[in-house]
Specification:
single chain, alpha/beta, Aminopeptidase, Aminopeptidase i, Domain 2, nine-stranded mixed β-sheet, six-stranded antiparallel β-sheet, 11 helices, 27% helix, 26% strand
Length: 430
């Protein structure tokens, strides 16, 4: 796949996936088009050799796999893991705020959000809505306003002379977005706005009452290729939809000869402890039903690659990196190492990635956090601990992690795709 084709497809994927639910729905469409079959956790499974399958939990996490043409206990499983969620501002259950004729909504900070970039941006809103239809049945629907509907205005520097030197953000009082102006006697409920949007988005949808929702604001500016020579991609949610897209493309475009799996979990940004998170039982349950009594043998022959973006060395903040481990954008994916097990990489898992990259003549880099700084983590150590599977942590280098808009190189994603595709169809692993 050429860089331009890959990145154009990536932009389309990112723009279609403003929330974990939309990301999984987008992945489902691509898997369906590639001939993968949907599985239901409530039903029996009858798996065939050489077939692709996927199973979805909560609408926000997905496991897709190719059963392969060899026995899974003898072949092992080539696994790739990523996460569907990104830090954002989520709407509270009773969100309506009316101040001086402005209609605002209260928001809760989800994950480790870099808050300042959320000011003065065109914001839209998307997520999942649960409702009762006119027949009394509970149903879910995805909603996406698509256009800019909200704004969080900054306080002018004239009213805050220390804004450039000492401004802090109070999430409770500073972040409620402005949606519209209303008269003093306005009684509009937020659920009224949701009902109207769903009616526009899905004509004929029968809604008696909205019972709940999980909605997040997002940057309404689409993903784009930027830079004088098109060296970069700028978008919301690169962490970690970029890895979801790469893993999905690698699975779909692999040969299918070997057992291979992609898991994209929700809730990584808040610790992964949920029914569909990496600390939950989702992946383990799928493996039990796929491998049966042979699971332990299959895991012993398997390897997991946890794909989650890495911190590229910022040209304005060179001192924030170890001098020998500052990954550069467009110089290859980054093998992430932390001997305190914040990353699950060991010498054997890293060696396999380097070996495949060398065979394909593709670049790679290594990241170790400064010894005087804390280190983030991924689903890698959680999955390794839950399954007992040898694991590698790797990621595309990026800038602005956890900002409303992030930046990565246009060459690193396709490089990681090529290595993961080869990994997923490789007969010998460790």
């Amino acid at each position: 796949m050429e860089h331009a084709e890959f990145n154009n497809d990536l932009v389309e994927f990112l723009n279609a996936s403003p929330t974990p639910w939309h990301a999984v729905a987008t992945m489902k469409r691509r898997l369906d088009a590639a001939g993968f079959k949907a599985l239901d956790e409530k039903e029996d499974w009858d798996l065939e050799a050489g077939q692709g399958y996927y199973v979805i939990r909560n609408g926000s996490s997905i496991v897709a796999f190719r059963s392969g043409r060899r026995d899974v206990a003898e072949a092992g499983i080539r696994m790739v893991g990523a996460h569907t969620d990104s830090p954002c501002l989520k709407v509270k259950p009773n969100p309506e705020l009316r101040r001086k004729g402005f209609f605002q909504v209260g928001v809760e900070v989800y994950g480790g959000v870099l808050l300042n970039p959320w000011f003065d941006r065109d914001l839209s809103l998307a997520g999942r809505v649960s409702y009762v239809d006119e027949s009394g049945h509970m149903k879910d629907a995805l909603v996406d306003f698509r256009k800019p509907i909200a704004y969080i205005p900054s306080l002018a520097i004239h009213l805050d002379r220390e804004a450039n030197s000492n401004r802090t953000v109070n999430p409770q009082t500073d972040l409620p977005p402005v949606l519209m102006q209303v008269p003093e006697d306005d009684t509009t409920r937020f659920t009224d706005l949701l009902t109207q949007q769903l009616a526009q988005q899905q004509p004929g949808l029968s809604i008696r009452k909205i019972l709940g929702y999980e909605l997040g604001f997002y940057d309404a500016q689409p993903a784009s290729i930027v830079g004088l020579r098109g060296d970069f991609i700028a978008s919301a949610r690169l962490d970690n939809l970029l890895s979801c897209f790469i893993g999905l493309e690698a699975l779909i475009k692999s040969s299918g000869d070997e057992p291979a799996l992609l898991v994209c979990n929700d809730h990584e940004e808040v610790g992964s402890m949920s029914a569909e998170g990496a600390q939950g039982p989702f992946l383990s349950a799928v493996l039990d039903r796929w491998c049966g009594k042979s699971r332990a043998r299959a895991i012993a022959r398997s390897l997991m690659i946890s794909a989650d973006n890495a911190h590229g060395i910022h040209p304005n903040y060179l001192d924030r990196h170890d001098e020998n481990h500052g990954p550069l954008l467009n110089q290859g994916p980054v093998i992430k190492v932390n001997h305190n097990q914040r990353y699950a990489t060991n010498s054997r898992s890293a060696a396999l990635y380097r070996h495949i990259s060398d065979e394909l003549d593709l670049p790679y880099q290594t990241f170790v956090v400064r010894s005087d700084m804390g280190c983030g983590s991924t689903i890698g150590p959680l999955t390794a601990g839950n399954l007992g599977v040898t694991t590698l942590d790797i990621g595309v280098p990026q800038f602005g992690m956890h900002s409303i808009r992030e930046m990565a190189g246009t060459r690193d994603g396709v490089t990681l795709f090529r290595v993961l595709r080869e990994f997923m169809q490789r007969k010998e692993m460790l």
